[in-house]
Amino acid sequence: MPNINRLLALEWAGIDASVDWHPPDHCSFLGQKDNLYPPHCVMGTPGAEFVPGLDTHRFHAIFRKGYQRDIEAYAVTHQHMGIFARYRESHVTTIAVCGIATNICCFFAARDLRQAGFRVLMIEDASAGIDVPAAGLFQAKAKEDGLALGIEYVTIAQMSFVP
Ligand SMILES: [Zn+2]
């Protein structure tokens, strides 16, 4: 989180956040249809709040996702398809992505943005990944796929060189 705050302190044209906002019987939870994850980010509970200390005052917009029981919505771009037009209308060309999990929510959003024609930077030291074998989600594979798509994997220290 301190690294994300360092990143948030840089000069950005816009900063969008996304957050899981799940019903208590969300399909991804253990015991539900997909049976993958412990309950997390249940809507309206403290678990769905941003981590204390995160500089949320820097966020310009917050997108909630995964709020329908039967839709996973790993990627904010899957839940909020208007986000592509939002960026194009703002003349955004480059998007930096960070957070958790690098190889799941971050990766799928980065993939969608890259495929939509944006330059995409994945900030590795402001992100953390996790392998989920039961879902076929692996950190090494996601990075391999991301590199093949033209996603650039960078560190915060490199960000000052990004035009
Ligand atoms: Zn979730």
Task: Pick out its properties.
18% strand; 5 helices; alpha/beta; Rossmann fold; 163 residues; two-stranded parallel sheet; 5 strands; three-stranded parallel β-sheet; 25% helix; binds zinc ion
Strand content: 15-25%
CATH architecture, please? 3-Layer(aba) Sandwich
Briefly, what CATH class? Answer: Alpha Beta
Instruction: List segments where confidence is low: pLDDT < 50 over at least 5 consecutive residues.
Output: none
Classified in CATH, the superfamily is Isochorismatase-like
| Arithmetic mean pLDDT | 95
Ligand roster: zinc ion
Radius of gyration computed on alpha carbons: 15 Å
Structural overview:
There is one protein chain. The protein is α/β, with parallel strands linked by helices and 163 residues long. The chain has one domain (2-161): Isochorismatase-like (Rossmann fold, 3-Layer(aba) Sandwich). The chain is built from 5 helices and 5 strands. The chain has helices spanning 2-8, 76-79, 83-89, 105-115, 139-149; strands at 16-20, 61-65, 94-100, 119-128, 152-154. The chain has a 3-stranded parallel beta sheet. Strands 1-2 form a two-stranded parallel sheet. Strand 4 (119-128), helix 5 and strand 5 (152-154) form a beta-alpha-beta unit. Bound molecules: zinc ion.
